[in-house]
Amino acid sequence: MNTTPQPLISRRRWLCGCASGALLAGCGGGEDGFTSNTGARGCLSINVSAAQATTSPGCGIPTRSTGNAALDAAFRNEFNAQGNFWGLPGVSFAFLNDCNSPNALANPQDRSILFGTTMAAKLLRDFGDTIPLWQVLAHEWGHQIQFSLGDSWLSAPTVAPKELEADMFSGFYLQIAKNTSNLSSSIANAFALGDWEFNNPSHHGTPIQRGAALLAGGRVAIEYVSGSIPRTYPAIRQRFFQELTFIL
């Protein structure tokens, strides 16, 4: 049984793109090359890249490497795995020289995801495993889904509703793709990413809200796998919205 959300073909039509029933079955990892393309049967072959990436960046500039070949390869494999999971073509990836400001972001203009090398190092140092890294990466994929499907219904004085929905996408992914029985490090990371700046337009949600959103995404994933909700993004997001009404 394929438990992956049905990939986006258009804003109105949904199909299951991968032939195999294995959760992360796809077309394999891509090599660095500054392109993204769709493979056979709609599976994705996504190259870890961004057109403006460089080998000697200044602060805030994309870069091709963390400086650790093993970590680079792990990111490449995970980015491709998440791309196949979400079924959203045309998204590219690069690392970001985030200097002393740990950050990761999704860009709606060029449909890229940038992951800071400082952010990656901090998460590995703080938690000792890669799950919090993949949590943040899935959060940024959540934003790319919002860009593709629209997120006007999440409009608010702050970006908190959009950020919390992205946290739900992250929890949804971890529950299904990683079969993670212990999300303690991810919950702790979600708490750490929260803030109390309620009047700041960039307010992402309180620590409690961010942890709750991650767990809510996991609950929706369990419903999804059980077949109690339709296997479409609109149905998933409707459940996310219901969960948001309790979190906000």
Description:
By secondary structure, the protein is α+β, with helices and mostly antiparallel strands. The strands form 2 sheets. Strands 3-4-6-5 form a 4-stranded mixed β-sheet. 46% of the residues are buried. About 18% of the residues have low confidence.
Short note summarizing the structure:
The chain has 248 residues and is an alpha+beta fold. It has helices spanning 69-86, 117-127, 131-149, 160-177, 184-193, 207-226, 233-247, and strands spanning 36-38, 44-46, 62-63, 92-96, 104-107, 112-116. A four-stranded mixed sheet has the order 3-4-6-5. Strands 1-2 form a two-stranded antiparallel sheet.
**Tertiary shape:** globular
Question: Rounded to an integer, what's the Rg over CA atoms?
Answer: 17 Å
> Which runs of at least 5 residues are low in confidence (pLDDT < 50)?
6-49
- Helical content stands at 40-55%
**What's the number of structural domains?**
1
From N to C, what is the helix and strand string? EEEHEEEHHHHHH
For the largest beta-sheet, the strand count, sense and barrel status come to: 4 strands, mixed
